[in-house]
Each structure stands twice: as C-alpha cells, then as structure tokens.
From TrEMBL:
Protein name: GntP family gluconate:H+ symporter
Keywords of the record: Membrane, Transmembrane, Transmembrane helix
Top-level taxon of origin: Bacteria
Keyword Metal-binding included in the entry's annotation: no
Annotated stretches, region: Disordered: 234-267
Organism: Pseudonocardia alni (Amycolata alni)
A Pfam family that the UniProt record links to this protein: GntP_permease
Bias (Low complexity) ranges: 234-243
InterPro entries: Glcn_transporter
Parts of the chain that traverse the membrane: 12-31, 37-60, 72-95, 119-149, 156-174, 186-213, 284-306, 318-339, 360-378, 390-409, 416-436, 442-466, 478-502
Length: 503
C-alpha cells in the first residue's frame, strides 16, 4: 500500500488527513493572515484532491458545475442562512437608529433603581442583543453604561459585565445571529428548537457569567469612566471596525455585520454633536413587541409542526408565518413602519440605513459558504466518517466532541464563525448517522456555539473592543471579559449536557 492509498483508505490515514487539514487551515489564518474564507476554500480543495476526489466531482465541468462539491457545498447552506442573517441585520439597524435602546435602558434603570442598575444593564443587553449584533450593541449601549456608572459612583466593570454577558449570550445562542443560524443550517435543525434550547441553556449561563461574575469581579477591579468622555459620549473611534468582533471583524478579517455609530439619543448622554438626534424614543412595549414577533412566530410553527395534524389550514398558516425568513420579514416590515415611517423617517432614509447595514454581511456569508464546502469535502472523502468512528470508539458523546472541537478551534484562531463551520463539518457525519431528534440536534448546536465563544483573548477583535470601550488594560480585560466568556461557554455547555440527559 502506497502512502497515498493509506491516506485515502485507512482510518488512521484519514484521521491524519483531517489533522493536517485543520493545521493547514490554522496556519493560513493565523500565520499567513489569509482571509478565512479563502483559507477554507484552499484547504477544502487540497483535501479533496489528496483524498482522491476527481476534478469533475470537485468543481464540475465548464458546461455544468451545479452538481459539483464546490457549488453544492456553498449553495446548500447559503440558501438557508442568507435571508435570515440579512433580515436580522436590517431589523437590528432600524432598532438601533430609532433610539429604542435608550428607551429600554432608561425604563429598566427606573424599574431596578440605583442598586439594581448593573442588573438593569444586563437585561438591556439581553433584550437588545436579540436583534442587534454584538459590536453594534456595544457601540450603542456603552455610553449608557458610562452614565449608569457615573450615577452609581462605582466601577465601570460592575455595569459593563452584565450588559456584555447579555449581548454575548444572545449572539452565541439565539437566531438571527450567524453562529446558531449557521450551525442549525449545517446540522439540519429547525430554528424554533434552536431558540427554545438556546434560551433554556443561555439564560442560566447569562445569570452566572453576567450577574454573579459581573457582581463579583466588578467589586474587585476598579475602573473609572474615561475622563475624555464627559457626559458619557462614545469614544472617538466609535464607528469601530468594519466587521463584528464576534464572528467577523476580528483579527482574522472574518466579516460579520458591524459598523454603527455608537451615538445616543437621551438628553443626558448626547453631546453638542448629537443634539439634533435627540427625539422622543419609541416605547419599550413597542420595541419589545417587534423583537418578540419573529421569536413567537418561529416557536409557534415549531409547536404546530409537532402537535397539529398535517394538512390542516391552521397548521399550514402557522408553519408559513413561522418560517424564519417570513417571520423576520414581517418583523422588518413592522419596524420600517412603526419605527420609521410613522415617526417621520422617509423611505429613502430607511433604504439608506438598510443598505449600509447590509454592506458587511457579504464577508460572513463567504466564510459560512466556504466552511460548508470544507465540511462537504470532509464528508465526501470519508474523513468525517473516520472521525465519527474514532469518537464512537473512545466513548465520547457527540455533544461533548462538538463542544471540545469548537472550543479548541476558537482558542487557536479567535474566530467564532470559523470554529462553528469547521466543527459542523467535522461532526456532520456523526450527527447524520446518529438518528438524533430535533431537540438533541438543537442541543448540539448550543454546544458548538458555546465552544465558539470560550476564552476570548488577544486574537479576538471583541477582546480589544471591550478593552477600549470600557477603559481597561489588557490584564484587566483578561481578568474580566476573558473569564466572563469562559464562564458563559462552560455553563452554557453544562446546561446543554444536563438537558441532553433527559431529552
């Protein structure tokens, strides 16, 4: 047997090929600073050729390529996630520009009182984090955290950590954010189950990481509001990087919707430059209702699919309205009218806001598509089956394997998106052969997503955004934010493992 035959046909050879492919991927991203989607394509093509896939099967012919691994790998996932991520991005942009975050924060601060201000900021991050991407949430809420810290006279960390935990939890575990949407699409699980299990596992993780840890560390690390931010105005670099710190605008150049201005609209926090933006914000009830619409519709469709007989009109209506893209479209239309047109914003301005918010989405879709192609190659070549057999032989549950692989990739290269799509490709054959139920598949998605946020450190753009916006040194950021993300990850996975034992 030649070395090439061993690589292509022997289990040990296929496992070696898998290890080399992941190592090559990490080297291209971390050392060569190659865009992750390019690195994924290169790795996928090389693995396919080494594993003996024909050129025709890999890329098709000049006449027809629609059945090739390359095109089916990309198309299989992008048709599912592109409208969800795009609509979610537009919804978040409209929500952010309307001043809804300010209204929600002020209402919660009044409700919880001065002593409960850190918890109020946490709930704000939790609610606003559903439609708004992580970095946008920081840009919008950071000035309000400054105000709360000035009022309370305590460490900025005490107010920032609960808010960051809320934003991070929703970004990691709940649609329409790219991580859970991508993992759900690649593993074939309905978004309703992802929402249900994401909430079930994410809320306890937020309570421990944001409320308990935030309170503990916030009383031990004293950080003041930056002196150059009187009144809580955003930092000079408020627009931030072009991509999201979580999935895309990290040091790897992996593109997630980002941008934003960090501007605020309350009279207390607005400086001279933002005075024109001060206006009566929408009500908290209105903001909450618009956020709830897609979640309720998607969950209702999931319940209807399980409890109602096929062919009934009521079931069909709920399934139609609860299709994630349809539910988000309805929510976006409501937001366009209730937060835009009815409040005097022209359609031209709303179109501009929507267009600007969608510009960075292209990079994350490229990363996801390339990751899906890489996963398709692993499945076709038998690498995925070899890994599945090895995991079964050592007795490691698939949910644990999913978490550990995702966590290792996240720590190594910093990008949550790369960790998710690569992990889904590796465990895909195991999941497909396991006959898992939808709740179990959703828990695997939670495990993959939880692993993808562990131990945010210097190779993650989110680390630097948190350090800059909340006036912390690298050491302080490691002691606060890095530990918070690790707790959020571990507790989220632990909750998923506990639920896994009973579903």
């Amino acid at each position: 047997m030649t070395f090439l035959d061993w690589l292509q046909n022997d289990t040990a050879g296929l496992l070696t090929l898998a290890a080399v492919s992941v190592a090559l991927l990490l080297i291209m991203i971390m050392r060569l600073r190659l865009e992750p989607f390019i690195a994924l394509i290169v790795t996928g093509v090389l693995v396919a050729l080494v594993a003996g896939v024909s050129v025709t099967d890999l890329v098709g012919t000049p006449i027809k390529a629609s059945d090739s691994l390359f095109e089916t790998g990309f198309a299989g996932i992008l048709g599912h996630i592109a409208p969800i991520i795009g609509l979610g991005t537009v919804l978040g942009a409209i929500m952010e520009r309307s001043g809804g975050a300010d209204a929600l924060t002020e209402r919660l601060l009044r409700l919880f009182g001065p002593k409960g201000a850190p918890l109020a900021m946490g709930v704000t991050g939790l609610v606003l984090g559903i439609p708004v991407f992580f970095d946008i949430g920081i840009f919008v809420l950071a000035p309000l955290v400054y105000v709360a810290a000035r009022r309370g006279g305590r460490s900025l960390v005490l107010y920032a950590m609960p808010m960051l935990a809320g934003l991070s939890m929703t970004h990691a575990f709940l649609p329409p954010h790219p991580g859970p949407v991508t993992a759900g699409g690649l593993l074939g699980v309905g978004m309703g189950w992802v929402i249900a299990m994401g909430l079930l596992c994410g809320i306890p993780a937020w309570l421990v990481s944001g409320v308990w840890w935030g309170s503990f560390i916030g009383r031990r690390i004293q950080v003041g509001v930056p002196e150059d931010l009187p009144g809580g105005a955003a930092p000079a670099a408020a627009p931030g990087p072009a991509g999201s710190a979580r999935d895309a605008g990290d040091s790897n150049g992996d593109g997630d919707p980002g941008g934003g201005t960090g501007g605020v609209r309350t009279a207390e926090t607005a400086g001279p430059q933002t005075a024109v933006a001060v206006a009566a914000p929408p009500s908290v009830a209105l903001i909450s209702s618009i956020i709830a619409v897609p979640l309720v519709l998607i969950l209702a469709a999931t319940v209807a699919g399980v409890t109602l007989p096929e062919g009934t009109v009521f079931r069909d209506v709920l399934v139609l309205l609860g299709t994630p893209a349809i539910a988000l479209t309805l929510s976006v239309l409501l937001a366009l009218y209730l937060l835009g047109i009815r409040r005097g914003t022209s359609m031209a301005e709303l179109g501009r806001i929507s267009g600007e918010s969608l510009r960075p989405v292209g990079m994350i879709l490229l990363v996801v598509g390339a990751g899906a192609f890489f996963g398709k190659v692993l499945q076709t070549t038998g690498v995925g089956d070899a890994l599945a057999g090895s995991m079964t032989a050592i007795g490691l549950p698939v949910i644990a394997s999913a978490y550990l692989i995702s966590a290792a990739l996240r720590i190594a290269q910093g990008s949550a998106t790369v960790a998710i799509v690569t992990t889904a490709g590796i465990i895909g054959p195991t999941v497909a052969a396991g006959g898992y139920s939808q709740p179990q598949l959703a828990l695997i998605v939670v495990a993959v997503s939880a692993g993808s946020i562990i131990a945010s450190h210097v190779n993650d753009g989110g680390f630097w955004i948190v350090a800059k916006y909340f006036n912390m040194t690298v050491k302080q950021t490691l002691m606060t934010w890095t530990v918070l993300e690790t707790i959020l990850s571990v507790v989220g996975f632990a909750a998923a493992a506990l639920v896994w034992a009973v579903v």
